[in-house]
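Quiz preparation item.
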């Protein structure tokens, strides 16, 4: 129970356990004294003082252990992690597979960009259906359709089908459900009324995102190189289907579907919820940080003649973010989520200057790797607080759609940041491209600060309006 830690400081005796009329005075009058009175031995039992130390010495459990002590939590998390790993595999596998077969990186990039655009359109619609009909009823058929699209892409590349079939096949994968969002929705349902535990769960989910996007490209490149060019796409499709089936089978932890009647008003989109559009713009700017940093690092490593090392360097950034996310989740948050979001954005803006300083002052790829490791430590806390705000602003029964919109904004920002970083690297210099993520982080900080100030002002006005009416 959430109240248990607060009660562990009191040590009532057996005589006070049955007294309910005056709990505030019972400890002062009925706790056994240090020297019992001989005239009333029956009123001062000796076992009571011996029980008190056992109650006081109990320590709170590890916050992550508390999460997975919930029945069914481990099972749905394992399935979700299996389904989430391919998210970092598909794009890399498609580029390697298409470029190797058609000898055109331009075609490979255009196909993956088409898939990203299709996901931005179809993803929120799929999430809306999940909210209305339930995770298992929608996620499984949507995943089957996405897997068929991946297999179609594999066969079209293998047997030399026309180029337009590649675009159509990869666009079909846009029905892939937002597995991370569905997992967060389950935690939000299981931990309702426990903000500290939900903070830990969101931190774990962000660390899992970082881990999957760190390991996914490495696994895809290894499979395509060690086995055959289509191996990455094939293994990714199998993992996705297996993981979603395992995840959907855990029905006891699935959030209930909100019942709607014909007379009930049609729910409005999360985009029309106050506070949500401004928050999505912040996600857009945050995504630009990630996209620009990735392109700048690849371009800088290529200029130094170590293009193969770019993946390792970027993996260090993801590792720093993953570790920071786990540490952040173990801490008890203080202050409002709006204030924490601004502070995390400030830390991200400051730390994003480290890679720029590293390439400008030393030009060493090793120093750059260390700078990216430290810089990545601010991204997970920023994303965790952002997702916490999404859960707060999302209309009831539309949490999956709201979080998918946040992910869509993030993907759009990644595309914009990659374009800006690539243009700067080509027309100025790869080192100068590291100024783009700094500018994007400052933009995210400014937008987050304005949004937090507007929210605070609106709450103060609402409080002043309620005060006279209550009086």
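Solution:
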């Amino acid at each position: 129970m959430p109240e248990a830690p607060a009660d562990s400081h009191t040590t009532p005796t057996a005589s006070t356990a049955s007294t309910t009329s005056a709990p505030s005075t019972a400890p002062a009058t009925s706790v056994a004294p240090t020297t019992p009175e001989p005239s009333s031995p029956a009123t001062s039992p000796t076992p009571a003082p011996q029980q008190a130390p056992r109650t006081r010495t109990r320590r709170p459990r590890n916050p992550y252990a508390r999460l997975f002590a919930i029945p069914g939590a481990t099972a749905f998390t394992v399935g979700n992690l299996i389904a989430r790993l391919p998210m970092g595999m598909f794009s890399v596998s498609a580029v390697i597979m298409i470029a190797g077969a058609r000898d055109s990186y331009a075609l490979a990039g255009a196909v993956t960009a088409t898939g990203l655009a299709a996901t931005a359109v179809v993803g929120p619609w799929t999430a809306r259906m999940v909210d209305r009909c339930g995770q298992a009823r929608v996620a499984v058929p949507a995943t089957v359709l996405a897997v068929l699209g991946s297999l179609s892409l594999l066969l079209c590349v293998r047997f030399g089908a026309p180029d337009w079939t590649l675009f159509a096949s990869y666009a079909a994968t846009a029905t892939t459900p937002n597995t991370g969002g569905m997992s967060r929705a389950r935690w939000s349902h299981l931990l309702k009324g426990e903000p500290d535990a939900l903070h830990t769960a969101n931190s774990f989910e962000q660390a899992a995102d970082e881990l999957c996007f760190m390991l996914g490209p490495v696994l895809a490149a290894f499979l395509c190189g060690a086995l055959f060019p289509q191996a990455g796409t094939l293994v990714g499709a199998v993992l996705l289907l297996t993981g979603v089936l395992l995840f959907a089978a855990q029905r006891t932890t699935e959030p209930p579907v909100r019942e709607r009647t014909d007379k009930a008003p049609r729910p409005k989109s999360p985009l029309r919820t106050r506070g949500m559009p401004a928050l999505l713009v912040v996600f857009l700017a945050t995504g630009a940080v990630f996209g620009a940093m990735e392109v700048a690092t690849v371009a800088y490593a290529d200029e130094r003649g170590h293009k193969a090392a770019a993946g390792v360097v970027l993996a260090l950034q993801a590792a720093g973010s993953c570790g920071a996310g786990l540490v952040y989740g173990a801490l008890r948050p203080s202050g409002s989520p709006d204030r924490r979001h601004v502070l995390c954005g400030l830390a991200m803006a400051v730390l994003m200057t480290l890679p720029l300083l590293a390439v400008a002052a030393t030009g060493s790829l090793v120093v750059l790797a260390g700078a990216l490791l430290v810089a990545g430590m601010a991204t997970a806390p920023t994303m965790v607080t952002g997702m916490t705000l999404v859960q707060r602003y999302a209309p009831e029964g539309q949490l999956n759609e709201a979080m998918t919109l946040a992910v869509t904004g993030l993907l759009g920002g990644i595309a914009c940041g990659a374009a800006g970083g690539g243009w700067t690297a080509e027309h100025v210099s790869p080192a100068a491209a590291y100024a783009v993520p700094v500018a994007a982080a400052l933009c995210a900080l400014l937008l987050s600060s304005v949004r937090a100030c507007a929210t605070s002002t609106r709450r103060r006005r609402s409080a002043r309006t309620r005060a006279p009416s209550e009086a």
